[in-house]
């Protein structure tokens, strides 16, 4: 190989279902850390119908982190993506892929760039929690690539830097996203309440009446509520 660095690409793919809140959180107590004013309880939906599928790749040939969503390149400069990338890189471990002859040291992950491609099999940004499925899937798949400990509670607490209500696992089914008491959000994570066989006969029907992007983002709507509604404290 001489003086040039060997060129390889290491990839991982994951899929995360979306989830619909039966008790929804509304309003953040910390915008930067994405900490809500109340818990939420959500039901995981069937990933064959509503899920995000994400492939992540790392290579010394990539000069920067890049991401494509539904085939279109999107910016990774937003705080939520940067926080997730930073937190997952912090937890990366050595990778020794004998089959491909790739060895990556824990500290190499800080300078290795990633390319991310994600597809949602349902309308994006239309109120069906694509952000929850997408961010959960992103963190879960990056964790797989970087050999991060598969502790779903911890992964959910990283994904929480992207969006609240993330359950980076396939079959969590009914989960509580615990709002936590610590100011740094370290005790805010997803907890499974019951598994997928608990209510075998439950059917959720989602009728998409419009797949247009919503006019007010949840983030904006919540910010307005926190700033202007005297009633929010009672709801929480
Ligand atoms: P939704 O109700 O679908 O969650 P939001 O407006 O709250 O709508 O979130 C949409 C945003 O979530 C997108 O603009 C994008 O930043 C992010 N997002 C959606 N899908 C994915 C995905 N598969 N992977 C990563 N991020 C995603």
UniProtKB/TrEMBL annotation:
Regions of compositional bias (Polar residues) in chain numbering: 227-236
Enzyme Commission code(s) on record: 4.1.1.33
Location of region: Disordered: 216-236
Family annotation (InterPro entries): GHMP_kinase_C_sf (IPR036554), Mev_decarb (IPR005935), Mev_diP_decarb (IPR029765), MVD-like_N (IPR053859), Mvd1_C (IPR041431), Ribosomal_Su5_D2-typ_SF (IPR020568), Ribsml_uS5_D2-typ_fold_subgr (IPR014721)
Repressor is among the record's keywords: no
Record-level Gene Ontology MF annotations: ATP binding; diphosphomevalonate decarboxylase activity
One Pfam entry name: MVD-like_N
Domain spans labelled Diphosphomevalonate decarboxylase-like N-terminal: 17-162
Keyword Membrane: no
Keywords: ATP-binding, Lipid biosynthesis, Lipid metabolism, Lyase, Nucleotide-binding, Steroid biosynthesis, Steroid metabolism, Sterol biosynthesis, Sterol metabolism
Residue ranges of domain Mvd1 C-terminal in the record: 204-236
GO biological process: isopentenyl diphosphate biosynthetic process, mevalonate pathway; sterol biosynthetic process
Family: Belongs to the diphosphomevalonate decarboxylase family.
NCBIfam families referenced in this protein's UniProt entry, alphabetically: mevDPdecarb
Protein name: diphosphomevalonate decarboxylase
Species in which this protein is naturally found: Triticum turgidum subsp. durum
């Amino acid at each position: 190989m001489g003086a040039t660095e060997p060129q390889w690409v290491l990839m991982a793919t994951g899929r995360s279902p979306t989830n619909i809140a039966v008790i929804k959180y509304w309003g953040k107590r910390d915008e930067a850390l994405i900490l809500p004013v109340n818990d939420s309880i959500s039901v995981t939906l069937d990933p064959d119908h509503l899920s995000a599928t994400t492939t992540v790749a790392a290579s010394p040939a990539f000069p920067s982190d890049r991401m494509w969503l539904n085939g279109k390149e999107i910016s990774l400069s937003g705080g939520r993506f940067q926080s997730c990338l930073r937190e997952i890189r912090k937890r990366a471990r050595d990778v020794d892929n004998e089959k491909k002859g790739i060895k990556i040291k824990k500290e190499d992950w800080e300078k290795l760039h990633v390319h991310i491609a994600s597809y949602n099999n349902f309308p994006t940004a239309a109120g069906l929690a694509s952000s929850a499925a997408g961010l959960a899937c992103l963190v879960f798949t990056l964790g797989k690539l970087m050999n991060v400990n598969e502790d779903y509670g911890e992964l959910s607490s990283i994904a929480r830097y992207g969006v609240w209500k993330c359950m980076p696992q396939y079959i969590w089914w009914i989960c509580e996203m615990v709002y936590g008491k610590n100011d740094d959000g370290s005790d805010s994570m997803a907890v499974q309440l019951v598994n997928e066989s608990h209510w075998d006969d439950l059917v959720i029907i989602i009728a998409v009446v419009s797949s247009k992007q919503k006019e007010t983002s949840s983030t904006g709507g919540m910010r307005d509520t926190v700033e202007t509604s005297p009633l929010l404290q009672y709801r929480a």
